[in-house]
């Protein structure tokens, strides 16, 4: 007994389909064989009637009343081996026949009515006296253009039916053998599907218990192969995500510890007293700087959390990108000046977009700050703004260290850092990407190692129906 499951479903479906098709084919085959044999008997008797009629044309009684001699002569002339011959009048009464049995009543079977209508009648049924299956074939004969008598042949179908029974038993045996083969084949097919599924299920159970090193082994094909590959890929991604998470926790712990150590150290130093005002001023500057750094880290984490939960609020308005970039350049001018990096802006007049000014400032501040961080000294960073195909395109181009192809495809992933030693949470570009998408735009990064990086931010132009607002 096959237990419930996919295996049973597959076996049952195959078995039912093949059984139905086989049953239909056997029924059609047996009906065709039966029809063939019955039609052959009917054709043989009908052909005999036609042949005898051609010969019998020489004998035509002048009178409508047939004598006993006439009937006997007709009986001997139309006789056919293996059949019983009867001559009936038009009322279906038997005038003479070859057997000793003489029916007392008129014959009313369908072959008689067919013969009276001018056709060669045929009837298959059970003989009243002998109770055997017979076929009766009747034909109306005329004398002087008048319906005179009916020639009726009766032949037993017992022999034919025995042969048909043997053929039926043979067909059933063949069908049973075919069904047995199909059952075996379907069970093999079901096993070939269920066995990999059981393996995949077992591996999935291990992964559910946290054993992400488990893998689906085996060269499976088609959908099963895709399922196994997807499951293995999922496990690899979970391991990678866990590693990224661990790296992030380690990195953020270091990032938080460093400024806290400085704040605590200078706080204890200042609290102890005995230092001159200049040293106290320097300590307070360091405490302020490190506090701002902590606030930036916390805000970055909070922003990412809001984006993940779709809770970040965007206040839309009309924003002049040129003025926004000029403001950012002023904010970062001191940092760029320390490394002798020139910030150059090439923009169309008043490039207007619809967006949140503060969030867009966060986007470009992060991009330009990264460009400064990874540019060589005595270099330049170009900020290019232009309109193209109904879009405002902003490019941040540097000639810095660049990013290799392996890291470029992952650089916008959350928590990912090309070089963890550079500090940060690895969330900056992930947040930037999501903010741009919230503005119905997109961000593309192009980079080559030691040749520089270009970040392209595309934002839609405002429509006429957009609500006007103050430019920043």
Automatic annotation (TrEMBL):
<dbReference type="InterPro" id="IPR005467">
    <property type="entry name" value="His_kinase_dom"/>
</dbReference>
<dbReference type="InterPro" id="IPR004358">
    <property type="entry name" value="Sig_transdc_His_kin-like_C"/>
</dbReference>
<feature type="domain" description="Histidine kinase">
    <location>
        <begin position="251"/>
        <end position="463"/>
    </location>
</feature>
<feature type="transmembrane region" description="Helical">
    <location>
        <begin position="167"/>
        <end position="190"/>
    </location>
</feature>
<dbReference type="GO" id="GO:0030295">
    <property type="term" value="F:protein kinase activator activity"/>
</dbReference>
<dbReference type="GO" id="GO:0005524">
    <property type="term" value="F:ATP binding"/>
</dbReference>
<dbReference type="GO" id="GO:0005886">
    <property type="term" value="C:plasma membrane"/>
</dbReference>
<keyword id="KW-0597">Phosphoprotein</keyword>
<keyword id="KW-0812">Transmembrane</keyword>
<keyword id="KW-0902">Two-component regulatory system</keyword>
<keyword id="KW-0067">ATP-binding</keyword>
<keyword id="KW-0808">Transferase</keyword>
<dbReference type="InterPro" id="IPR036097">
    <property type="entry name" value="HisK_dim/P_sf"/>
</dbReference>
<dbReference type="InterPro" id="IPR003594">
    <property type="entry name" value="HATPase_dom"/>
</dbReference>
<dbReference type="InterPro" id="IPR036890">
    <property type="entry name" value="HATPase_C_sf"/>
</dbReference>
<keyword id="KW-1133">Transmembrane helix</keyword>
<dbReference type="Pfam" id="PF02518">
    <property type="entry name" value="HATPase_c"/>
</dbReference>
<protein>
    <recommendedName>
        <fullName>histidine kinase</fullName>
        <ecNumber>2.7.13.3</ecNumber>
    </recommendedName>
</protein>
<dbReference type="InterPro" id="IPR003660">
    <property type="entry name" value="HAMP_dom"/>
</dbReference>
<feature type="transmembrane region" description="Helical">
    <location>
        <begin position="12"/>
        <end position="33"/>
    </location>
</feature>
<dbReference type="Pfam" id="PF00672">
    <property type="entry name" value="HAMP"/>
</dbReference>
<dbReference type="InterPro" id="IPR003661">
    <property type="entry name" value="HisK_dim/P_dom"/>
</dbReference>
<keyword id="KW-0472">Membrane</keyword>
<dbReference type="GO" id="GO:0000156">
    <property type="term" value="F:phosphorelay response regulator activity"/>
</dbReference>
<dbReference type="Pfam" id="PF00512">
    <property type="entry name" value="HisKA"/>
</dbReference>
<dbReference type="GO" id="GO:0000155">
    <property type="term" value="F:phosphorelay sensor kinase activity"/>
</dbReference>
<dbReference type="GO" id="GO:0045121">
    <property type="term" value="C:membrane raft"/>
</dbReference>
<feature type="domain" description="HAMP">
    <location>
        <begin position="191"/>
        <end position="243"/>
    </location>
</feature>
<dbReference type="InterPro" id="IPR050351">
    <property type="entry name" value="BphY/WalK/GraS-like"/>
</dbReference>
<keyword id="KW-1003">Cell membrane</keyword>
<dbReference type="GO" id="GO:0007234">
    <property type="term" value="P:osmosensory signaling via phosphorelay pathway"/>
</dbReference>
<keyword id="KW-0547">Nucleotide-binding</keyword>
<keyword id="KW-0418">Kinase</keyword>
């Amino acid at each position: 007994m096959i237990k419930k499951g996919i295996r049973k479903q597959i076996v049952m479906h195959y078995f039912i389909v093949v059984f139905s098709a086989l049953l239909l084919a056997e029924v059609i085959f047996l009906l065709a064989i039966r029809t063939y044999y019955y039609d052959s008997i009917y054709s043989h008797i009908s052909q005999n009637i036609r042949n005898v009629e051609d010969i019998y044309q020489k004998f035509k009684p002048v009178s409508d009343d047939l004598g006993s001699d006439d009937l006997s002569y007709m009986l001997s002339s139309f006789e056919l081996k293996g059949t019983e011959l009867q001559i009936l009048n038009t009322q279906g009464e038997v005038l003479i026949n070859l057997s000793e049995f003489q029916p007392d009543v008129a014959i009313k079977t369908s072959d008689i009515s067919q013969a009276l209508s001018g056709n060669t009648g045929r009837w298959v049924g059970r003989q009243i006296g002998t109770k055997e299956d017979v076929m009766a074939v009747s034909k109306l004969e005329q004398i002087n253009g008048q319906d005179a008598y009916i020639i009726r042949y009766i032949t037993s179908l017992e022999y034919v039916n025995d042969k048909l029974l043997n053929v039926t038993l043979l067909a059933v045996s063949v069908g049973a053998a075919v069904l047995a083969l199909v059952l075996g084949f379907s069970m093999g097919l079901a096993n070939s599907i269920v066995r990999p599924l059981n393996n995949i299920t077992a591996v999935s159970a291990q992964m559910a218990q946290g054993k992400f090193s488990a893998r689906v082994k085996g060269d499976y094909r088609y959908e099963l192969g895709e399922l196994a590959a997807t499951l293995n890929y999922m496990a690899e991604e979970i391991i990678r995500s866990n590693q990224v998470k661990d790296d992030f926790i380690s990195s953020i712990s270091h990032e938080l510890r460093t400024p806290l150590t400085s704040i605590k150290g200078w706080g204890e130093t200042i609290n102890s007293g005995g230092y001159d005002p200049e040293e106290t001023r320097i300590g307070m500057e360091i405490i302020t700087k490190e506090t701002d750094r902590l606030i930036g880290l916390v805000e970055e984490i909070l922003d990412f959390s809001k984006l993940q939960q779709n809770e970040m609020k965007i206040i839309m308005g009309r924003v002049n990108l040129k003025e926004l970039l000029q403001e950012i350049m002023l904010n970062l001018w001191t940092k760029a000046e320390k490394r002798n990096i020139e910030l150059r802006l090439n923009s169309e007049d008043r490039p207007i977009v619809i967006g949140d000014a503060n969030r867009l400032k966060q986007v470009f501040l992060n991009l330009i700050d990264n460009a400064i961080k990874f540019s060589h000294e005595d270099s330049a960073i170009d900020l290019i703004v232009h309109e193209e195909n109904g879009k405002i395109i902003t490019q941040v181009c540097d000639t810095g260290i660049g990013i290799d192809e392996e890291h470029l495809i992952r650089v916008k992933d959350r928590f990912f850092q090309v070089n963890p030693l550079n500090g940060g949470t690895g969330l900056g570009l992930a947040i930037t990407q999501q903010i741009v998408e919230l503005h119905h735009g997109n961000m593309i990064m192009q980079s080559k190692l030691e040749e520089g990086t270009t970040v392209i931010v595309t934002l839609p132009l405002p429509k006429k129906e957009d609500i006007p607002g103050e430019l920043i």
